[in-house]
Each structure stands twice: as C-alpha cells, then as structure tokens.
Specification:
The chain is α/β, with parallel strands linked by helices. Helices cover 45% and strands 16% of the residues. The protein contains 13 helices and ten strands. It has helices spanning 15-21, 28-36, 62-77, 91-103, 114-128, 134-153, 163-175, 190-201, 214-224, 234-237, 257-261, 302-311, 313-328; strands at 2-9, 43-48, 52-59, 87-90, 182-186, 206-211, 227-230, 243-246, 272-276, 293-297. The strands form two sheets. A six-stranded parallel β-sheet has the order 7-6-5-8-9-10, with helices on one face. A four-stranded antiparallel β-sheet has the order 2-3-1-4, sandwiched between helices. The longest helix is centred in the middle third of the chain and has 20 residues, at 134-153. The protein starts with a strand and ends in a 7-residue tail after the last helix.
Length: 335
C-alpha cells in the first residue's frame, strides 16, 4: 500500500484560497469518509487548520490516487485551482512531511504547539469514521511518536510557539504596550485561549469572551478571570475594547464594516486593533479601510514567524535529523 499527501498551506496559497478548502473540525471524519468513497483510495485522513488543508490517502497506485485527490480538491473549491497552490508528497516524503507538521517545523509560527493536538483530532476523527486501516494507522502513530521526541529533545518550542502569541507580539508593535488594554475574544477554542493568555501576560486589563456556545464562553472567561458575552451581544462590547481577536469556526464573516462604523463615535475614534486568525476569515477585509482600524489576518503574521525561524535554523536541522532517523528505522518505507 502506498501513501500520498496532497495539500496547500500558508507557504503555497494565500488565506483567500485556503479558506475555500477549510474543513470544520466537526466534519473532518465525514470528509475522510467521503474521500474513501473515491475510486482507488483505500484509506484517508483529512487535516485542516488555519494554515493548511491536507489530504492523506493510502492507495495501491500512487499516480492514480494523486489524480483522484486533485479532482476531489477541485470539486471542493468551486473555483479553478492553480497548480502552484498545491504540493504533493509520496511515500517516505509524505511521511517526512507529516512528521514535520506534527513537530511544528512546517508551521508559520515555528514550534507551534496547537498543531500536534489538531493532527491527533484529525486522525481520531478519521479512525472513528472507519476511514483508516493498517497503513495510515501506523503512519500517524509513528508521526505522533516522532513529534513528541522532537519536542522533547530540541529547543524548537523556545520563543513564541503559537499563532496567538505572535498576534500579541504584533499588537504590541502597534500600541507600544498592552497595559490596561481591554480585549474581546470572539470564539472559545484552544487558539482563543492561548491568545487570551498571552494578552493577559502582557498586561491586558480585562478580557471579554464571546462564543456561540455560551457555556463555553463562560468556561473560558472563568479560566481567564474575564467576562462572558452572549454571541448576539458582542457588537455592544465592541465600543469598549481596544483589541479584538477573532477565531470562530463560522463558514462566513461574522464582523463587517457596518459593525465598526456603528460604534466609531461612541469609541471617540480610538485605535482598534483586529486580529483575524480564523480560516475562513471572520472579519471582512473592508473593515481595515476604516482610518483608526488596524486589521491583520493570519497571513500578516508571516513576518514575525520568519524572524523566529531564522533565529532557530540550527534547531530545525536537529529536528529534521531526528525525523529522518526515526522514519528510516521504522520499516514503513524504503528510502
């Protein structure tokens, strides 16, 4: 059985392309199951985060499986897909790529911690849907073991290791400092939690948490010492805050220009910093055209991420050496 990985990420496609292929976490198992219905694909795992969507497939014929995967992705987009947006890995290269992903060295923020858990959830969803068998079970379990070893035996997690913490760095560059700032987090997932923790560690005075599930908003607000807000009421809070971090799983924008225009006068035209770390994007790009608004989406964090990557070049080499040693010794593939 052969393994093929076909995907697109922050290095190959801008956010407006990636959001066309984003798969909500609660549909990953279903999507993996659908892929297994495609002729020639025996097993599959679909991984989708703010920075990537990747399709892993096991097949008797790599070439045929590759063609089938490309057709499948094209049908998902509903728009022409340019070849330069995609990358393809087969066999050992596919395994090496997966290990780099779960180890955090293929992430926009080097050493990112969230991706390990996201990959485990994607695999578990595929497993529970019956989309995996011997080949992908062995591959993903091996990759998780390699990822743990990389993080334990290297300094790859030193410095900023999440999209959220990089976003907070960017906010500090704009405002100078975040002391006494008031913050609203829209979305109560893991990325929202780590971002809010970073904000509090830099001196943010208060945190408001809005989420479609009010119970989850209450839980995160309690953990952060903040205040929960019903999702239908987040617009009322907008006039009070200095920073908004948005990371929902909505399939469409939740904030548009009219939301901000409606509170500009009450805000006395104070600067408003918006970080949209959702894919698909939560905040319409037109919001950034308002004079006192600073809007950044996930792709604007690249500059900060690239600085960190350059500073830790030696750690990357060490990580890749561990990955190669573990995979060659695994017996899964012949180099």
């Amino acid at each position: 059985m052969n393994v093929v990985c076909l995907g697109l990420n922050h290095q190959t496609a801008p956010v407006e392309i990636r959001e066309l292929f984003a798969v909500p976490e609660n549909r990953l198992g279903e999507e993996s199951g659908r892929l297994c219905e495609v002729e020639g694909i025996e097993e599959s795992v679909v991984l989708s985060t703010c920075n990537r969507t990747e399709y892993y497939a096991a097949s008797a014929d790599c070439v045929f499986a590759s063609d089938q995967l490309r057709s499948f992705l094209q049908s998902q987009a509903g728009a022409p897909l340019r070849i330069e947006h995609l990358y393809e890995k087969q066999q050992l290269e596919a395994a090496r790529h997966l290990c780099r992903v779960v180890s955090g060295i293929d992430s926009m923020v080097l050493g990112e911690t969230e991706i390990f858990g996201q990959a485990k959830k994607a695999y578990q969803a595929a497993l529970e849907s019956g989309a995996t068998s011997r080949m992908l079970n062995q591959l993903f379990q091996r990759a998780f073991g390699v990822g743990k070893k990389v993080r334990t035996n290297t300094g790859i997690q030193e410095g900023q290791t999440s999209v959220g913490s990089a976003a907070v760095d960017l906010a500090e560059k704009i405002f100078g400092h975040l002391r006494n700032s008031r913050v609203m987090v829209i979305g109560a997932g893991e990325m929202s939690r780590t971002t809010a923790q970073s904000l509090l560690s830099r001196g943010a005075r208060s945190i408001f948490v809005a989420n479609r599930s009010f119970e989850k908003a209450e839980a995160l607000a309690a953990e952060l010492g903040g205040q929960s807000v019903r999702f239908d009421d987040w617009e009322k809070v907008l006039q009070e805050v200095d920073v908004v971090i948005s990371s929902t799983g909505a399939p469409h924008a939740v904030m548009n220009r009219s939301h901000v225009e409606a509170v500009r006068r009450q805000r006395r035209y104070r600067p408003l910093f918006l970080i949209d770390i959702a894919v698909p994007r939560d905040i319409e790009p037109e919001v950034g055209e308002i004079e006192e608004v600073y809007l950044y989406d996930i792709d604007t964090l690249k500059e900060i991420a690239m600085e960190a990557k350059g500073q830790r070049a030696e750690q990357i080499k060490l990580c890749e050496s561990i990955i190669d040693q573990e995979l060659v010794g695994s017996g899964l593939f012949t180099p």
